[in-house]
Amino acid sequence: xxxxxxxxxxxxxxxxxxxxxxxxxxxxxxxxxxxxxxxxxxxxxxxxxxxxxxxxxxxxxxxxxxxxxxxxxxxxxxxxxxxxxxxxxxxxxxxxxxxxxxxxxxxxxxxxxxxxxxxxxxxxxxxxxxxxxxxxxxxxxxxxxxxxxxxxxxxxxxxxxxxxxxxxxxxxxxxxxxxxxxxxxxxxxxxxxxxxxxxxxxxxxxxxxxxxxxxxxxxxxxxxxxxxxxxxxxxxxxxxxxxxxxxxxxxxxxxxxxxxxxxxxxxxxxxxxxxxxxxxxxxxxxxxxxxxxxxxxxxxxxxxxxxxxxxxxxxxxxxxxxxxxxxxxxxxxxxxxxxxxxxxxxxxxxxxxxxxxxxxxxxxxxxxxxxxxxxxxxxxxxxxxxxxxxxxxxxxxxxxxxxxxxxxxxxxxxxxxxxxxxxxxxxxxxxxxxxxxxxxxxxxxxxxxxxxxxxxxxxxxxxx
Length: 464
Known about the structure:
The protein is mainly beta. The chain has one domain (57-460): YVTN repeat-like/Quinoprotein amine dehydrogenase (Methylamine Dehydrogenase, Chain H, 7 Propeller), CATH 2.130.10. The chain has helices spanning 4-24, 198-202; strands spanning 56-59, 82-83, 99-105, 114-116, 119-126, 131-138, 144-151, 166-167, 171-175, 180-185, 191-197, 216-218, 221-225, 231-237, 243-248, 261-265, 268-275, 278-283, 289-293, 307-308, 313-318, 323-332, 335-344, 357-359, 362-366, 372-376, 381-384, 396-399, 402-406, 411-416, 424-429, 442-444, 447-451, 455-460. The strands form eight sheets. The chain has a five-stranded antiparallel sheet, with no helix packed on it. The longest helix has 21 residues, at 4-24.
């Protein structure tokens, strides 16, 4: 019995040899193939497809209105933040301010509205559902006609939504906080082509505080700043989503919060973009770089968009002690050279968050010290609102020769848009206990749409 433990290993080895021989002599049940990563998914897919984002349309109870007026994208039809609606506006308000036509709750953030054909478009964020939600509202009463939503996790980081849709007679285009680009039927919200994910497809890096770039629709194409390791900018066919051209990113510049601006100069139609490492102008036909400069870059965040002029000047401004810079384009070979004309130190004439307004040969802006100011195109300050009249990071625009400017707490000021001096006409608190009222304003047919951190309101500012 003492020898039995010594025999156990030998018996186990003999049993294993017999089992192996039997297995090798048996035909396999089927053909075995080595496992290749990705072959367990449907044919033709890649790893990225597993993260494909799809949206859904939910109908609401609202009805489209037949009210006049249009504000079809960020900073209006001409991208200059000036309304040209033929509607007379009031130059004074009754006690309590202009009439509030409707107010709705919105997700935390600063996204502004676009307006067209009696509809208001807002790219919101639904915290409970964890979805980006493009909401289509009636301009008349704010009721929701429909919403298009898709899943994306966005954490609270000084708000969640920041961008303004672009709407044409046929489609509406959105740019989500995490780089999801959607093109939908403007009337129904049904997708025209699959959602594009710039982070997934082009390895673009989401900037601090999420995307602030608003989509640029120019004719039959959509132009986007990408800032991926290989692609700086791209153009997409609006009808199909097909990529028309890409601009190589040889300098590895990243995306900022600034939006692309079209510019015509010397019979060349171009797009100007402030990326992380400088400013670039590309040919609208093929995306080739016509000029670029690293004379202008902001280390932390570039937010305002370029202000362009017909004579080839480009005005740039921002926060974080950047001040301002005026460039002048000059022909050089097949492209242009961008030469600095003048620089302004911080708080001389700059803008922390919003893009200055060019109106009647002068610039208007809320400076980095919070004051509303006017300057000529040489950088000379013509007037400032004074330390008792500050607006923080609030938005501003011009309509009917009037400046509308909102402060952080949602108090709206109306003043004359004149280089003679600061001439306020009226002021009213729009939001009770308002805060972070930084979202861009929109105006259509004398209806001014404003927001604070989590409310949006429509005001009647027409002359009665």
